[in-house]
Description:
Pfam families: Aminotran_1_2. Pathway: Amino-acid biosynthesis. This is Aminotransferase class I/II-fold pyridoxal phosphate-dependent enzyme. The chain is α/β, with parallel strands linked by helices. The protein folds into two domains: 29-39 and 266-361, Aspartate Aminotransferase, domain 1 (Alpha-Beta Complex); 42-263, 3-Layer(aba) Sandwich (Aspartate Aminotransferase, domain 2). 40% of the residues lie in helices and 16% in strands. The strands form four sheets. It has a seven-stranded mixed β-sheet with strand order 2-10-9-8-7-3-4, with helices on both faces. A four-stranded antiparallel β-sheet has the order 11-12-15-14.
Amino acid sequence: MTDAPQSYLDPIVVRGRITREQPKGLPVVNLGFNELPYGPTPKVAVALEAMMPRVYAYGTPYCDALRDALGQANGLDPETIICGNGSEELLDVIARNFARAGDEILISAFGYIQFEMCARRQSATIVKAPEADFTTDVDALLGAITERTKLLFLANPNNPTGTLLPLSEVERLVDHVPPHIPLVLDLAYGEFVDDAYCDAVHTLARNRVNVIVTRTFSKAYGLAGLRVGWAHVPKDMLPGLYAARGMGSVNAVAQAAAEAALQDMAVVNMRVAETISERERVAGVLTQRGLRILPSRTNFLMVTTGDAAQTEALVVHLFEDAGLVVTRTREAGLEDWMRFSMGTPEQNDLLLASVARFLEEG
């Protein structure tokens, strides 16, 4: 007897965040969406102001100038790049190209929740390969491939765990996934590893008939509100992806901002460096206080007190005590954990002080 395909309408466990009114009237700081806490970079701010009189106009449907800029910045042929309304649109477009009802989409056990949403929309069966210490296990993924496997998604670094698969293991996965199965390597948080790692992943994808690399401006570039993503794709796949993508899904303002961000890399890199420094500082303090922190290569941390009820109490305390919104991780196997992104140093100090009060009171 085979498992019935999962429907998009079936219940799905999602990550919960507190949305009620802050009881003390404190300003609410949302650390639940993995956003950067900064405003636009100087060149992005100029580009946004310049675009305001032209908001009546559509953006270029194929994002030609942005693709050229991305190609130059990443050493890629612009004709192998497609842009979308955030990388989430592109993930969905990829799933609609390659999976149908009854097909299998393979992911790692604690993979990005949007991968499962993509499978549900197609009424495909989501298959989750076991992980090793909250990190993708390449052998488990390869061992889970069947004749029904039509697509493999891998977020690396991963969300929500933050863990990173070494490049040698990514290469082994690329080399052993059958060429008829598209392999999507989602590098949404790649900038928080380093440029060399991202470049190496793109190099692995070159000249492969089945490897797609997805990227975003929502994280390191701080443009989550404008929704700009892109993918490095084998040329033969592009017609099908464009056919399934919205014609004007990246608006004119978003295109201009993304192009400007690529010209402001000194500021982007400075913010990434500060985020990494804050991540390590916060992780060190929380570890000293007895919390468990997964090793993160992103702009967020996944944390547990070791007890699901106590972690839930900490989530509520952070909101009621300091106005901080963090994310519960409710997926099976992650019930003991919570996740939060790095804020400004001042916001992170607020979080550390509130955690200290919780532990002292408890």
